[in-house]
Design brief:
Length: 220
């Protein structure tokens, strides 16, 4: 049915009920979007607050430790570990959850280099990283955790995963790290080619300078 200006008032009068239903539907959609946005904002604030509380606990426990070296993260930083695990579990798949898990893995990497606890901590994050940049940092850090244990082949696999993401961030550093790991694993011929490629691809950069410096070294 075609509606002209002349018969528009009559059409509105006859279809008031339909219009009320349509307007109510539009209003409900708007309310739904608003509620979702409000809920997301509350969730983000809660996640940020929980992560901040965990960081405060870490600051407090490190201060209490004083000059005593931290060698057992789960025992000496127990409140921090509990808080970080809580954030990781509650906000899994979100930025705050990933950040909490990453901080926990970093604590193991820094304070318990021989325990190997950092490896499963990083590995748990590879499947729940909220985006490619978080995946990049996870795999990059996991490579170093494997290297820390002398597992060079496994470390190379993690770097390859990170490189395969195709992210421009840390691209030169990833290539340089891969060349260095090849050298440390005894694959000297591959390492030399990799160093030369870094020096060529990233000419006049810090990565290129290091590649030129490291390619002739046996102990890296």
């Amino acid at each position: 049915m075609q509606i002209s200006e002349s018969n528009l008032p009559d059409w509105i009068s006859r279809n008031k009920r339909l219009m009320v239903v349509l307007l109510a539907s539009v209003a409900l959609v708007g309310v739904g979007v608003g509620l979702k946005r409000s809920q997301a904002e509350r969730n983000l604030r809660a996640a940020s607050a929980a992560l901040y509380e965990a960081e405060l606990k870490l600051e407090k426990e490190l201060k209490l430790a004083g000059t005593t070296p931290v060698s057992d993260v789960d025992r000496q930083l127990s409140e921090t570990v509990t808080a970080l695990k809580g954030v990781l579990q509650k906000f899994a798949g979100q930025a705050a959850g990933w950040e909490a898990g990453f901080q926990l893995a970093e604590l193991y990497f820094k304070y318990e280099p021989r325990s190997g606890k950092a490896i499963p901590a990083y590995q748990a994050l590879t499947a729940t990283a909220p985006g490619p940049r978080e995946k990049l940092f996870t795999w990059y850090s996991l490579a170093y955790a494997f290297e820390q244990q002398g597992k060079f082949d496994e470390a190379l696999q993690q770097l390859d995963q990170a490189i395969a993401l195709g992210q421009p961030l840390l691209k030169a550093e990833l290539a340089l790290s891969r060349a260095r790991l090849l050298a440390r694993s005894g694959k000297q011929a591959e390492a030399q080619k990799a160093f030369e490629k870094v020096a060529s691809d990233y000419a006049n950069t810090e990565a290129s300078r290091k590649a030129e410096q490291w390619k002739g070294m046996k102990n890296l």
